Amino acid sequence: MIPIDSLFSPVTRVRYAVEAARVGQRTDYDRLILEIWTDGRISPDDALTQASAILQHHLDVFVGYDKNAVEFEEAETKQDDEKAKLKKLLNMSVNEIELSVRAANCLNNANITTVGQLAMKTEAEMLKYRNFGKKSLNEIKEKLAALGLTLGMNIDASLLEAPKEEAKPLAICGNLMCHRKRAAKLGRTGEHRNAMLANLVCSLIKRKRVTTTLARAKAARPVAEKMVTLGKTGTLHARRLAAARLRHPARTLHRSKAERDAWRRNEDVVRILFEDLAPSFKERNGGYTRIVKLGQRQGDAAQRAILEWVDFTAPAPQETTAETEPKAAEATK
């Protein structure tokens, strides 16, 4: 064999995919899809045939034994297959045997969910259930007989699987369906609320602390935490995400003076976030902000709070000296 740097195969490209297939009531089959491209010297069908023949020729070396001299445990394998089929049948849902509405409702009320649970019940036990009569009993007996089962069977517990817990239904609040996910509305629509939170976070980035209501502080806190996380990332994509969340408009030439001023302010906020604020939290893995509760606000008695960064230190109050007191007195005169 002489290796050469050339390819003379008429097959230029091959792609395959394996998908699930259903045959009758069985869904544990696989479907192989082969896509073959050739350069025209041979058809895709002939290429597949020749490749299969070559593969079979190479594998003949491993299968050249006397089949009669090898004993297989066919009985045990057959028994395992029958046990697997029976287990699958017993754990099948009762909804799959197409019962009438009345019989199905009776089984649901009795908490009978699988065929195995149904087959273990006797006729006397079934007739004790509410609204379950002779007609429903005969219907169930016919359905079980079609599956090769009867009522009152003794079934090995190892063949029955534990019943699956059903998902808890969503709570119904009046005429609306609650999805157990609530967020503070703050008396505003979604767009207005997002804009208000963006303004709060911008003020927090520039001034290090803001005084607002407790509800607004709790709503703005996760936004501020996320902005610091983006700032610690430091990539261009992170800058764009932060600018979009903080309502940083795209820079265009045809804007009013107020819009250009807002653009410059937001640009300063993003710069402060990525160049000054985020590096100061480089060694911290989270918890960048804190909320300090204040008293109630006059007028509406709303709970006030301060949202600030954890490394913020309030400036010490200036002490009044003897030299400044006469000047202050003169100013008052």
Q: How does this model look, in words?
A:
With 333 residues, the chain is an alpha+beta fold. It has helices at 44-59, 74-90, 101-109, 115-119, 123-127, 134-146, 190-207, 214-233, 236-245, 257-280, 324-332; strands at residues 11-23, 26-38, 172-173, 176-177, 209-213, 289-296, 303-309. The protein folds into three domains: 1-58, RNA polymerase, RBP11-like subunit (Gyrase A, domain 2, 2-Layer Sandwich); 86-158, 5' to 3' exonuclease, C-terminal subdomain (DNA polymerase, domain 1), CATH 1.10.150.20; 191-309, 50s Ribosomal Protein L17, Chain: A, CATH 3.90.1030. It has a three-stranded antiparallel beta sheet. It has a two-stranded antiparallel ribbon with strand order 1-2. Helix 7 (190-207) crosses helix 8 (214-233), helix 8 (214-233) packs antiparallel against helix 9 (236-245) and helix 8 packs across helix 10 (257-280). The radius of gyration is 38 Å and the shape is flat.
CATH homologous superfamily assignment of the largest domain: Ribosomal protein L17
Spatial sequence of strands, sheet with the most strands: 5-7-6
Instruction: Give the low-pLDDT segments.
Output: 167-177, 248-254
Mean pLDDT: 77
Order of helices and strands: EEHHHHHHEEHEHHHEEH
Tell me the Rg in angstroms: 38 Å
What's the total number of strands? Answer: 7
For the terminal residues, how far apart are their CA atoms? 112 Å
Strand composition percent: 15-25%
Shape: flat
Structural class: alpha+beta
Tally of alpha and pi helices: 11
Judging by the overall fold, what is the CATH architecture of the largest domain? Alpha-Beta Complex
What is the class of the largest domain in the CATH system? Alpha Beta
| Structural domains: how many | 3
Largest sheet: 3 strands, antiparallel
Helical percentage: 40-55%
CATH topology of the largest domain: 50s Ribosomal Protein L17, Chain: A
